[in-house]
Amino acid sequence: MKKQLLFITSKNGDSDEGLSYAIDLAKTLDENIAILLLNKKTAEQRFQDIMTAVAFAEEGEHGTAREFLQSEKTEEQSYSMVKECKTAGIDANMHAVSGDLVSVVNDFLKKKTAVDMVLLSPTITKNGVSARELQKLVKTASRPVVTIAKQEMQHA
User: Fold this and answer.
1) Which of 38, 29, 40 lies closest to 108, judged by CA?
2) pTM of whole model > 0.90?
3) Digit-coded pLDDT (tens) for 127-143
4) CATH for the stretch 4-40+74-147
5) What is the domain partition of the chain in residue ranges?
């Protein structure tokens, strides 16, 4: 079985940010990519968002209702990430999960032993992970954990 990089990104944000780095690294290491699309919202929070959207729709505020429902990445957007990998010659698969980062990653790694490195996208490192959570992940993942920072454009 071919080794994989585990690229973790968030459903809430620019989920493909950092994907080009993961693709380049996978090419260099001759590995595949497993994409973990993390939704940190609990089932109760998602239910509240849906109920809020329903309330706005009932009041004729369809645009606002759509905004609540579109905060989640759609299947089409997730598919485009896998397609981008395959276009670059990298086999990829997508896994949508909910929960806290450390638990989700550790559960995934128990099931997928071919993963040899964990890459955290800029959307995870910037918005979704505390220093304590990152430290716990590094200790428990039993794989190298790499954080990808967003590169800012510099003007000369």
Assistant:
1) 38
2) no
3) 667 788 889 999 999 89
4) 3.40.50.620
5) 4-40+74-147
